[in-house]
Amino acid sequence: MSNKKVKTTEKKQPTRKGEWYVVHTYSGHENKVTATLKQKIKASNLEEKIFDVLVPTLEKIEVREGRKQTVKERIFPGYILVNMILDDISWHIVRSTPGVTSFVGIGNRPTSLSDKEVETILKFSELEAPIYKASFSIGEAIRIIDGPFADFIGTVDEINEEKGKLKALVSIFGRETPVELDFLQVSKL
């Protein structure tokens, strides 16, 4: 007899899949609307008509006062996504939620997102590596606060948000020299 474990695959019941709709909310109230809507769904026993509510976000690294901070930034400020089977009841529950202004669609008719659109949004919001959020702009004057060029003044020439780096032109011995620096090594003047 061997001690090998045999994987068994359970057949999962196919879940009823609704369509994804975009719902317009007051900007800055997306999380509050999402929480309220989820409570209303549960209280009304509509889990079989409204399956999911989410705020698409993206993790970004922001440099504030020389420190890295991971922040969740909304991809579509003022909008949430709702996966639901659209009928009069589910429409009313979503539409009557405080903070919801309307469904996105043509006229009064909500338009669902295609599977490809939903897939793209979900992949984008689930990116593994956080993106750096640059608070610098090209041509801006900066002071180098760390590293061998500390206390030098330079001008931003290039910005690489993915790596959290920038290239600055620094005057060394009377010549403009390009220097690659981390966002943490510089501050605005």
TrEMBL record:
Q: Which positions fall inside the NusG-like N-terminal domain?
A: 17-125
Extract the SMART domains matched here: KOW, NGN
Sorted alphabetically, which InterPro entries does this protein's record hold?
A: KOW, NGN, NGN-like_dom, NGN_dom_sf, NusG-like, Rib_uL2_dom2, Transcrpt_antiterm_NusG, Transcrpt_antiterm_NusG_bac_CS
* Transmembrane segments annotated in the record for this chain: none
**Biological process per Gene Ontology, one example term:** DNA-templated transcription elongation
Which source organism?
Candidatus Woykebacteria bacterium RBG_16_39_9b
**Primary role:** Participates in transcription elongation, termination and antitermination.
Name a single GO cellular component. Answer: cytosol
Gene name in the database record? nusG
Q: Where is the KOW domain?
A: 135-162
Cite the entry's keywords alphabetically.
Transcription, Transcription antitermination, Transcription regulation, Transcription termination
What Pfam families would the database entry show?
KOW, NusG
Organism classification: Bacteria, Candidatus Woykeibacteriota
- What is this protein's record name? Transcription termination/antitermination protein NusG
The entry sums up its family as follows: Belongs to the NusG family.
